[in-house]
Amino acid sequence: MATADYKQISAIARKRRAANIAAYYKTPTWNEADLPRNLTEFALKSGYYTDDELAIIQSEADVILDKIKTKAWTALRVTQAFCKASALAQELTNCLTEVLYAEAFERAKYLDDYLARTGRTIGPLHGLPISLKDCFITAPHPSSIGMAAYANEPLQKDTLLVTILRDLGAVFYVKTNVPTAMMMAETNNNIWGECRNALHKGLSPGGSSGGEGALIAFKASPLGVGTDIGGSIRIPAAWSYMYGLKPSFGRYPVYGGKSGIPGQEHILAVNGPMSRSLKSLQIYSEAVLSENVAPWEVDHKLLPIPWRKNVIQPPGRKLRIGIIGIDDGLTTVHPPVERAINMTRAALEKAGHDVFTWSASEDHPAIVKNIQAAFFDLGAAAITDLLKPYDEPFFPSMEGYGIAAAAGEGGIGPTKMRLMNLKRNELQKAYLDRWNATAADGKPRMDAIICACSPWAAPRLGQTQENFYVGWTGFVNYLDFPACTFPVTLADKTLDKPRDKASFNQLSDIDGRIQADYDADFYHGAPVALQVVGKRLEEEKVLEMTQIVADALKAAS
Ligand SMILES: *[C@@H]1O[C@H](CO)[C@@H](O)[C@H](O)[C@H]1NC(C)=O
Ligand SMILES: *[C@@H]1O[C@H](CO)[C@@H](O)[C@H](O)[C@H]1NC(C)=O
Ligand SMILES: *[C@@H]1O[C@H](CO)[C@@H](O)[C@H](O)[C@H]1NC(C)=O
């Protein structure tokens, strides 16, 4: 039985976080009412940073790595700048969990000494600060994943990916906030509290890698690592206007992290990089999946496929892309997302690519219903058993876990499990066949799907509690496809008028509620990003295609 309730546990965790920050940085405080919407801009102009720090935190990973390698910057200076930024990001957005400044400085100094002594970098990520979602274990720090049961529990063994990244030269300095058990579409929990969007304080940074999204958008991290089982990398990446790669299972090492539903393998959880720069995702992937690291030698779940370059052949060939329109059969996107879809379609056509409409209404609804039911059924006992002893209440969007547990779905049984797997396999095969069938009438097979990441541009805080919907990202997890988000535009009250209520035909109850929430004034400035979806194990192609799409959007603007 638990000896403390979650409130006492939370107080201990928050005190530790505050003390670890206060040991190095004193952040200014402001009246909430005086803060503008855009917290990132506010911070950059606040006078908190020196010019030197501003130059560092606004640089992307390739520049940072180069400046450290050529000794223009020390790893220590770079680390200090990002630690200082993260302290303010915490103050303004509540994006952090564990604070690792002391060991980050020590590691950065070691790397600087190593470079001075040997004239060589330790690896391709030498000196790069990388932020980690809370589920990655950096022993001895706890990995709460937003639950009292784990919040103050010291851990002994690093997650495999953490060891790999450290050996490549990365510096870990913070871990970032997540929702309870990492199973909500926004970042809130009973231990650390709610995280908000750095680019618009009334909006959610999404979840479950929401702390990453806020921290990176705040320019307090050049690169972070998130995890994704239903959209947990792509939802926060999209809502904070950045690139986020959700790979298929079997490429990036997954061994030894904390999981929200341990042992659940019906929908496979994966991890991947998030950054404002697409190039950073390339650098990260090339480093982690290199022949040198050979992660498949140490993670028994991985396929021995080293990172491949220039996979789109011949170079410069035109792509064939299926774009999903404004609905997926269950929900309709908000007007700013519709405009982003149109902008992307027009930009690709202008660049000479073959673009056509890919329908989602026949197969996506079944996929979405299955994945949402699977989470509740498979997570019911796992999550309820951890929350109950500490009297932790469920957030509204997670009540399905409690309901499933009460209904006995925790003991789901082999027959139901088998049938769930059979149904999933059948839908996966049918989707692949539909993809394959695009090679017809003399046209080549479709290269990618482009679609929304959610019905919203980043939605208001709390919106997904009543209207939980991850179908736009979840179908990709169900199919185990890779996908990468890309920023397109910001919501604009003059361009993005609400849909006409009289003629709007709602596809479901949730569709009606989501559309009713749209308010052009409130959402003005909200980030809008879409995603490029490839076929299984096509991570390299997805990143190359995302670059092509980003270039086309830039050329068209
Ligand atoms: C917020 O501020 C940052 C930094 O100045 C800027 O890049 C961004 O475009 C601003 N607005 C939004 C909505 O992202
Ligand atoms: C997007 O394109 C469709 C099809 O051309 C068009 O009907 C619709 O009005 C456009 N929407 C916006 C917001 O531009
Ligand atoms: C896959 O596409 C090819 C055309 O490229 C076609 O010949 C074949 O019948 C298709 N297979 C299935 C199962 O649809």
Brief digest:
This protein is an alpha/beta fold. It has helices at 6-22, 39-44, 51-57, 61-69, 75-93, 101-118, 148-151, 160-167, 210-217, 234-239, 278-288, 335-350, 364-387, 399-406, 414-436, 463-466, 471-479, 509-516, 520-523, 539-556; strands at 96-99, 129-133, 171-176, 224-228, 243-246, 270-275, 320-323, 354-357, 448-452, 483-490, 527-533.
What does this structure look like?
41% of the residues lie in helices and 10% in strands. The mean pLDDT is 97. It starts with 5 loop residues before the first helix and ends with a helix. It is globular and about 65 Å long. The chain has helices at residues 6-22, 39-44, 51-57, 61-69, 75-93, 101-118, 148-151, 160-167, 210-217, 234-239, 278-288, 335-350, 364-387, 399-406, 414-436, 463-466, 471-479, 509-516, 520-523, 539-556; strands at 96-99, 129-133, 171-176, 224-228, 243-246, 270-275, 320-323, 354-357, 448-452, 483-490, 527-533. It has 2 domains: 6-29 and 39-242 and 269-297, Alpha-Beta Complex (Amidase signature (AS) enzymes); 320-556, Alpha-Beta Complex (Amidase signature (AS) enzymes). The protein has an 11-stranded mixed sheet. With 557 residues, it is of the alpha/beta class. Bound molecules: 2-acetamido-2-deoxy-beta-D-glucopyranose (NAG) (3 copies). One 2-acetamido-2-deoxy-beta-D-glucopyranose (NAG) is lined by residues 433, 436-437, 439. This is amidase. It catalyses: a monocarboxylic acid amide + H2O = a monocarboxylate + NH4(+). Substrate binds at residues 182, 208, 229-232. It comes from Knufia peltigerae. GO terms for molecular function: amidase activity.
